[in-house]
Every structure is written in structure tokens, then in C-alpha cells.
Amino acid sequence: GLAGVVGLLYLTDTTLNIQSLLGTLMMIGIVVNNSILLVDRANGNLLVGQSPEEAIVAATRSRLRPILMTSLTLLASMAPFCFRLVPGTEAMIPLARALVGGMAVSTVLTLFLIPCVWFLVKRRQQVAV
């Protein structure tokens, strides 16, 4: 997520200031929430007897729509601020750019990296037991 924040701020020549840090903090909150809900669903699936692979696939499938809805809503609502399409909102531009860059990268990582890491950890735990 932070790579997306820094990347978009760099590409748009936007300074790192209090507004962009607030956007980063907001992005982190959303991403952590999405990840916690995904992992919790996978752990619940594991408790009802599914294998780790089945549990994470089912959890990702069931959380895909809510994660995409949250991310796409945020991206669509902040895009006008990123491109100065709304007059009088110049102070919000760094916040919007930090949110858009961070969420674009974090959504992909949440949907692909978190399930992979969870699966590897659970598989290692089963081998150790």
C-alpha cells in the first residue's frame, strides 16, 4: 500500500505533507480491515473442517465482492480530487492521491498476497503438528 502512495505522489509531483499522511492513514485502516475480515473468514472455514486450501479459496471468494466494492467506491469518489476536477478542493489533492495510489496497490495485494501468506503459514503449522 505504501508503495502505491509513494509511487502516485512521486508520479504526480505531489509533496508528502499532513494531508497525504492522513490519506495514508485512512488507506491503512481500510486495508487492515479488509485483511482482518478475510483472515477471520478463512479461520472460520478452517474450524468447520475445511482444508487450508479450501478455507482460503472460499474465504477469498466470499470476501471478493465486498473488498472490490469498498476499493472501487473509494477510487471512484477520490478520482475527481486527484485530477483537480472539483474547484476549491486543492487542499484535498494530496489526501486523494495518497488514498487512490495506496488503495490501487493494496486491493491487489489483499486479494492475492494475503491469501498466499495465510495458506503458507497454515500449511507450515500443519506440517509442524
- Radius of gyration based on Cα positions: 17 Å
Q: Given the helix and strand composition, which structural class is it?
A: mainly alpha
Q: Write down the secondary-structure element order.
A: HHHH
- Note the total helix count: 4
Helix-residue proportion = over 70%
How confident overall, as mean pLDDT?
93
For the largest beta-sheet, the strand count, sense and barrel status come to: none
| Fourth-tier CATH superfamily name | Multidrug efflux transporter AcrB transmembrane domain
Architecture, CATH level 2?
A: Up-down Bundle
Write a structural description.
By secondary structure, the chain is mostly helical. It has a single domain (2-128), classed as Multidrug efflux transporter AcrB transmembrane domain (Multidrug efflux transporter AcrB transmembrane fold). It is built from four helices and no strands. Helix 1 packs antiparallel against helix 4 (93-128). The mean pLDDT is 93.
